[in-house]
Amino acid sequence: MGRICLWGSGLAVIAVLLAIMGLLLARGGGALSWEFLTAAPKGLILGTEGGIYPAILGTVSLVAVASLAAAIPALLTAIYLVEYGKTSTVAHGINFVIQAMIGIPSILTGLFGYAFFVVTLGFGISLLSGGLTLAIMILPTLVVLMRDALQAVNDEYRLVGASLGVSRRYLLQRVILPIASPHLLSAVLLAMGYAAGATAPIMVTAAVVMSRGSIDLFSPVMALPFHLYILFSQHISLDRAYGTALVLVLILLALNLLSFYLRSRYGKRVTSHD
Question: What is residue 50's DSSP assignment?
Answer without folding.
Answer: E
